[in-house]
Amino acid sequence: MSKNPKTITNEVMDRIEKGKITMRPRIYFVLGSVLVFVGLVATVIVSVFLISLMRFVLRAHGPMGQYRYEALLASFPWWALILTCLGLVAGIKLLRHYDFSYKKNFLVIVIGFIAVVFAAGWFIDATGLDAIWLQKGPMRGIMRRYIDNETKKIPKGGRIR
Amino acid sequence: MPDYKKYTDEKLVEHIRKNNKELFREIMRRYEDKLMRYATYLLRDYHMSKDTVQESFIKAYMNLFGFDISKKFSSWIYRIVHNEAMNVLQKNKNEIPLPDHDFKDDTDIEMEIEQKEMKQKITHCLEKLPVIYSEPLALYFLEEKSYEEIGDILRLPQGTVATRINRAKSYMKHLCQKTQRQ
Question: What number of CA atoms fall less than 13 Å from residue A156's CA on the CB side?
């Protein structure tokens, strides 16, 4: 192999001229950015929803007696907790794609992201915005199914809230 | 015919995107030696560095529409080489031999020998530094990049770059003194 580094230029140009290497079209990168953004927004929405759902479940069981604690553990939506964790991890990974992310301390971005998701989840639950999600939002199916299942477990005259 | 040699990298990229493929040769002419030096420093092997730089140019060409023209092209292409070199290092852990290639400057023989000796001493010290310290140091002193550019290449905040360079200097001082005593 020749040690002349100039051969790199000739080799690459040769492949470009023969059409062996082609530029990816602009749309490829536009779509990529759009998908990353949509993915990030989706993970935030799903995580916020799941956190508000978990808060709702905790409140629905009232003060912590031993019986209630066991009932809470039995009916706690662990899938929501796992999905929230996965959503947060996916959101953090997607954030890394954005140019600004490396210019700031990444630990601050991660803590900020998690704090924002938890704060939004708490806010939605505290202000009753989750009722809107329940009636109109994209998650209404999941929330409705969860409440229906829980209602079936409660004896007549009981309350879930 | 316009004098493309006077064009900035970013302007050249704009023209290449408009189907003036031949201008990519000018981009490679500008960066080939610099990137070879950088890759050789990271990989310490001429052939691996050549493959890495070639692969980086191919990736840069394929992803030219992904480059944001408002940013510095040099940081972008150095970043690609950095990523490629890191992949090679990962694949060839513990298999990186010592350098077998050197780049000549246009200076007289005496100066060249002096510089070579100095370079050897520095390279020897640099080799002992962990890559997280030696890479920003090499970019700053050997490639003459600013803190901002190093941050863009290594995807690090400028504060971290400054800290690593300062720590690297202290380590270097310590290591070079140790080497001289031996």
Answer: 0
With CA atoms as reference, the chain B residue closest to A25 would be B65
Q: In the 8-state DSSP scheme, what is residue A139? A: T
Instruction: Say what the ipTM of the complex is.
Output: 0.72
Query: What's the length of chain A?
Result: 161
**pLDDT tens digits, one per residue of A21-53:** 999 998 888 888 888 888 888 888 888 877 777
A17 contacts B28? CB cut-off 8 A: no
Among A3, A7, A14, A16, most B C-beta atoms within 10 A, so best to mutate, is A16
Residues of chain A with pLDDT under 50: 1-3, 5, 158, 160-161
* A contact test, residue of B29, B54, B55 with most A CBs within 10 A: B54
In A3-139, alpha helices (H):
7-17, 26-60, 66-75, 78-95, 106-127, 130-135
CB B118, CB B76: distance < 8 Å: no
Q: What is the DSSP letter of B45?
A: -
* H or E element in which residue B58 lies: helix B46-62
CA dist., res. A92 & res. A87, Å (int): 9
Predicted confidence (pLDDT) per residue in B98-126, tens digit: 444 444 445 566 666 666 676 677 777 77
Whole-angstrom Cα distance, residue B116 to residue A102?
A: 36
